[in-house]
## 1
Amino acid sequence: MTTNGGEALIKSLENEGVEVIFGLPGGAILPVYDPILDSSIRHILVRHEQGAGHMAEGYAHATGKPGVAMVTSGPAATNIVTPLCDAYMDSVPMVCITGQVPYAAIGTDAFQECDTTGITMSVTKHNFLVTEAADIPQIIHDAFHIATTGRPGPVLVDIPKDIVDPGNPRSAMEWYEPSGPQLPGYNPVTVPDPALVAEAATLIRAAERPVVYAGGGILKARGAEALRRLVELTDIPTVTTLMARGALPDDHPLCLGMPGMHGNYTAVTAMQEADLLIALGARFDDRVTGRLDGFAPDAKIIHVDIDPAELNKVRPANVGIRGDCRLTIEALVEALGVDVVDQGIDRAPWKQRISGWQERFPLTYEQSAPGEALKPQFVLEKLRDGSPRDTIVASGVGQHQMWTSQFWNFEQPYTWINSGGLGTMGFSIPAAIGAKVGMPDRTVWAVDGDGCFQMTAQELVTATVERIPIKVALINNGYLGMVRQWQEMFYDERFSEVELGRTVPDYVKWAEAMGCEAIRAEAPEEVEPAVAKANEINDRPVVVEFRCDEREMVFPMVPAGKTNSELLVDPSQEDQPR
Amino acid sequence: MTAERFHTVVVKVENKAGVLARVAGLFARRGFNIESLAVAPTDDERFSRITFTVDVASAPLEQVVKQLDKLVNVVDIRELDAATAVERELMLIVVAAAPERRSELLDLVRIFKAKVLSVGPDKMMVSLSGRPDRIDDFEALLEPFGIVEIQRTGRVALRRLDSSAIDETPEVP
């Protein structure tokens, strides 16, 4: 069948099972937008290309399927660099199609030309510059294969205009179905080495104070069920990192919650005191380890990762296993065989220490005095308690992100979406939109700060027009709160360029102007009704502005450069014996 | 240059546009220090071979190899240490050679089995191919004459064959 590159591109995307493209057209990608009109694929027109990228990420986080974004050349391509880097850092499967100037014009500084593959080389798992129309079906197939297998990640395909423009003879081609990936240098290993699994099992049997350090790789591998079997079989307390919240339910008796710089005391301290850390799909990020030479000093390390480059990168492993997290956990369960009780292992002393920490150092905050601004933690507790249990929460980056991770009760995997590695402010609204598109029957809340909101709020117009009824909880404290916290703690309260102002912009008017229902809550008794009202509205986006106390700080906290043993607890717990 | 600090890695890559940029970009981004680099096609036109020497003080060799392996266009990676590698390099060098010092210079050329490529009134161009350490020695001996211009290719390497007697005939000196 004779076709052209543009039609072949859309057909290739359909063949990959793509249901939705987040995008914004422009000159170089224009010919591809014509066949979209006749395609089964839904296109969501964003207001800024960064939004398209984060929506694709949110969609991928929520569904496990690759998100697809499509934008034009030049400034559109540079605008999507941030989401690509974000997806690269957090291993999010994503395919990004960019338009490019005609092949013959590349290198001439043509209008809206930029070196997209050069710019994105270090923020993608791989990228392609397509030079012939006939390569399109194969390259699209390869792109999806790379994005979704091994350690997932973003793949960019840059396509010159002439090979997708039916008016140009260079676009003519014969359609074909690729028979499989053609990638001689790409062969991810997923099945773990049984000998190493056996070694790991031996370490697990011998451990007295083991902790499972569960990372985002478990969710990428759809391994939450396997994780649960492993920890129940071995009776091992488990921390879930910022990227793995929900991988084990927070109310599970073995779940200690989030470790790291703003992790809870028990999760941080259990890792510090452990004699064995079983790191599953985690990468010993600096926000988890604190100062590395003081991290978990007595612990042996079992490290499982699909990406062998993560093994021994930061902390040398006693047993490093290359493999898919789910397959490796299942192999470990098999190798361990009978459960911990039948093996005569007594976990009681270790668990007693842990429950002692939990009793002495629960997450806490001081309630506001009458007439004072809202406490953000109080708002998040009310939001959590007033929303459906399977609500998907997407957050921006900063204090509100840490409080959400701390105070939400994650009962299921794939209900928590945030920007962990890159820490991209403005992530939440577009990510929530992408999640809602992928999971239309679920309640989706974006928890956002006022600084974040001002970076990507324009996508609420997209949400209104495309009828994607997300809800936004805007934690408005009038400041870049996390930076303010660091200036308060480490710069003698010298506040430099962190005050955004609480009343300008008027968030209610702004939200209404974008077609959203807008609610403002300023007093504690207004919070519950505001949440309830927002949860009842399902025909348009809702923004609830919570006017919050700017003095509130995130605790516990491991100051930068300190070890996790030097964790600062909430001021009310300072006198507790550690 | 000590054997412990510098390690030779031979990478087979797909012969596609931008592959060298991916490899070089990876070195830059991860802070790997490269001592020398040589790129050339192989007998199979689909692939090229990149031979480089990395300073393992800048990053553990394991990280260098594993990160390289993540590049989709990298097909095969071989680490070669001095004991398992046959390494060669080519040097072109222009040396100051006034007529009264020429015979002294030609002695060295003869001893090292180098070649005189071009002779001018007061300069001489010489080439030498061989083991990189021999080229280092030769360069050091030419230094006192006055080096006008020098170009070295960077080393290329292959794994030594099991019976490599022919391959490693002792070289002079």
Note: The mean pLDDT of chain A is 97.
## 2
Amino acid sequence: MYKNAEDLLKMAKEQGKRVWEVAVDEEIKLTGTTREKLMAHFSDRLDIMFNSARKALMQKQTTKGSLIDGVSMTQYVYSKGDTISGNYINYVMSLAYSCSEVNASMGKICASPTAGSCGIVPAVLLGVMENKNVSREKVLEGLITASAVGGIYTANATVAGADGGCQAECGVASSMAAAAAAYMMGADDDRCFDAAGFAMINVMGLVCDPVAGLVALPCAQRNASGAVNALISADMALAGQIAHIPFDQVVESMAKVGKMLPPQLRETAQGGIATTPAGLAIYKEIFG
Amino acid sequence: MNVSLLDVVGPVMIGPSSSHTAGAAKLAKTARLIYNKPFNRVEFGLGGSFAKTYRGHFTDYALVAGAMGMSEDDENLSRSFDVAKEQGITFRFYPRDIQSEYENTARITFYNDEEHTAFYVEGASLGGGRILVTSINGLACEVNATSPTIIVQQHDVAGVVSEVSTILAENGINIGIMKVGRDTRGGTAYCIIECDEFIDPAIMKKLRAAKNVLSATVVNIKAE
């Protein structure tokens, strides 16, 4: 069994397999499931992800506190017109927003790796699939690659905002999605992990500061920016930018940074934008 | 690395929080499966972070949904208060100091006012949708409800555990993990048995009929 990216990449090379194939083999050994059942689970989860990424594009959802009602539709409508960063980037943002809106309105989502960061992986998978005509099979392989990346964070760092701040939730989701995006664009496994590393480095230290303690603001915005971060990080790796810092060391440093963050910046709503005058006013308005 | 890929990309759930929504629903559903009798009233004693933040994360809707038998991915979860009312079930929430090493704790008590009975299950949401049941009507235990689990209460006399395991073996049930304990010597003892397979009601009937067995409950959690 692998315990980090170095092991996983080594096993893949020795066995002449891709990282996602080794991850599947190891999952079967770990859980005793069958290949067919496991692939069916991933396929179901991909469907749930895509549904949540599309649901709010043209239908405003009602969330507690109404902080993010309609954010997806607003970005989606804008994505059709003249934009600064392009129609595609804005569309991917609207997909991530959709998942966040669905999540905050008691809709069905697939945590990846958490509910608060559930928009990033689906937005990237669906955005790249549609924009680059990637087959569903390849998207599933990308999703499994992303899961393997996420698993390495779970085992060696953390994916809980309460332990590591937002870098552990939206940061990890972005890192997972970057690996998937690179994979879907034909990158080899080393480049996929470089992409994952770039994505984490770009947001390292990001704090978790939910206004009124709700999974809404700034979570939704960070899902949108996290999805875009995944795309540009994959592009960095695909362009051949040198990573310099091995992925496992990025993971280790992220865990350390998480521990250095004071509790006020780890999901307690006692710091960051949660305690701005406007943030506190929102809290008062919702909970009295 | 001891991490399942399906725990990384998962759980599939109703938002917004895996610990405060999905875990709450799963804990209450597990409590209902353990109780498994009719009730007209259910009360939720909330400890730690559950008590402080339950409204923002819909922990209240999730708990009622679970008590009504819904899973954490049931799209009717947001309608759970109405579902309970439709079925004539009343509910309330109150703060409760629960001794636990975990942050999100709850005591779920099912009342049958016609028969003047009350039954409670206590447990915690551990994050990522995982839960731990820590007490069943005062019986301390550790049930994480990830696989089918049998809870047997028996007289603390020689041979009962062997009888229970023989019944399971004869019916092709492999015991994954088995924990045995008791309140006092010669008093009431219990076995908590985690299995790999779905437990058929016929097997439970045989367990209940066994000599010195006081009760046998099954929590048939869908195994992955």
Note: The radius of gyration of chain B is 18 Å.
